[in-house]
Amino acid sequence: MTGRLYGKSVGEVLKIKNDFFEQNGKMLELSAHQADVLLAQPLRKKCKICGCALPDETMYSSQRMEYLVCPECGHVNSRHEDTEAFARAVYLEDPYEHHYSEADREAYLKRMRTIYIPKAEFLLETLEGEGLNKDGIRILDDGAGSGYFVRACQELGLTALGIEISEAQVQFANEMAGTDILKTVPGEEIPAFLSVAEFNVFSFIGVLEHIVNLQEVTEAIRDNENVQYVYLSVPMISLSCVLEAANQDCYNRHAGGTHTHLFTDSSIERMAENMGFTVHRTWKFGSDMMDLFRMLCVKLDEGGNRSMKEYFSPKFLSMIDELQEVVDRHEFASEIHAILKRADLK
Ligand SMILES: [Zn+2]
């Protein structure tokens, strides 16, 4: 790796994730349903990243799900497989509704600026460091969701298009933008679309961990020589996993749910290699300390210690960025942003 960055302020992000703090019971129910579905799937025989046979020994278990370490690439895989049936059962699509107020638009812009502009800036800064200028950058964002990252790229003056399997998300993103920034591509057509798309940068922000046919997608990237850089963010085996395993009465934001496998530095390198890429630059900033803070708040509340929670919260929040930065620097953060570069690119 040629560049590593750590840390990011979580203050604003924290305000956006309120449900996790106030709806612990409901979130646990949702998570239990997702675990039921995963546990009904066949056992996973091969590592999601390198295809190596998985061992029997469990690294850890949380919310009834067991996780195994790949002996070859270090990737952490759930014992049960994330199949098409699993995906159909856990990714529920909300119907699209045309009732968006001015307040919704403001909330959208706030989320885009707080969470997605820093990601777009990291990408732009890296590509400019590689000698590209704004006119020479064309970004295709796969799994574009509500279009936040595409909007953030456009806000920085970059050409960006998003593709997304959910029609409702595409309609929502385009309505928020007032123009078509996303297009719908059915899941089974995505590898073929990616293999010929005329973009030099592909982005996958919180997406690869959800893809059932991950190998087809990485092969499509490998085969499309237009693609020079891939920007991804994925969940990591991290302090958040430990906090979740040790506090199973608190909602598991990180492992479980729709995250059935967790990356390591070595499994990301292995995935990059399979694609014909190298890891060029990384930025680690986790939500581990936010998870710790949330779990303490939930438990203080549930134990009748609301006033202690109120006493403790501002003290903890004044330290949270520094605490997280220590976790990030020690390579134990819940999330990584990585920019991969095609290996034969000068
Ligand atoms: Zn592996």
Tell me what you see in this structure.
With 346 residues, the protein is of the alpha/beta class. It has a domain at 4-23 and 101-238 and 263-342: Vaccinia Virus protein VP39 (Rossmann fold, 3-Layer(aba) Sandwich), CATH 3.40.50. It has 13 helices and twelve strands. The protein has helices spanning 11-16, 18-22, 24-39, 84-90, 102-129, 148-155, 167-177, 190-196, 214-223, 239-246, 265-275, 288-302, 306-329, and strands at 4-6, 60-62, 65-69, 76-78, 138-142, 159-164, 182-184, 201-205, 229-235, 261-262, 277-284, 335-342. It has an eight-stranded mixed beta sheet. A four-stranded antiparallel beta sheet has the order 2-3-4-10. Helix 12 (288-302) packs antiparallel against helix 13 (306-329). The radius of gyration is 20 Å and the shape is globular. It starts with a strand and ends with a strand. The model has no long low-confidence stretch (mean pLDDT 93). Bound molecules: zinc ion. The site of zinc ion has 8 residues, from loops.
The parts where pLDDT drops under 50 for at least 5 residues are none
- The helix/strand class is alpha/beta
Q: Averaged pLDDT, please? A: 93
Helix content: 40-55%
For the terminal residues, how far apart are their CA atoms? 15 Å
Provide the β-strand percentage band.
15-25%
CATH superfamily of the domain at 4-23 and 101-238 and 263-342, by name, is Vaccinia Virus protein VP39
Give the second-level CATH assignment, the architecture of the domain at 4-23 and 101-238 and 263-342.
Answer: 3-Layer(aba) Sandwich
Number of helices: 13
The molecules bound to the chains, other than polymers, are: zinc ion
Spatial extent as radius of gyration: 20 Å
Can you list the strand order of the major beta sheet?
1-11-12-9-8-5-6-7
State the order of secondary-structure elements, H for helix, E for strand. Answer: EHHHEEEHHEHEHEHEHEHEHEHHE
Based on the structure, what is the oligomeric state of the protein chains?
single chain
CATH topology of the domain at 4-23 and 101-238 and 263-342: Rossmann fold
Number of strands: 12
CATH class of the domain at 4-23 and 101-238 and 263-342: Alpha Beta
Strand count, sense and barrel status of the largest sheet are: 8 strands, mixed
Shape: globular
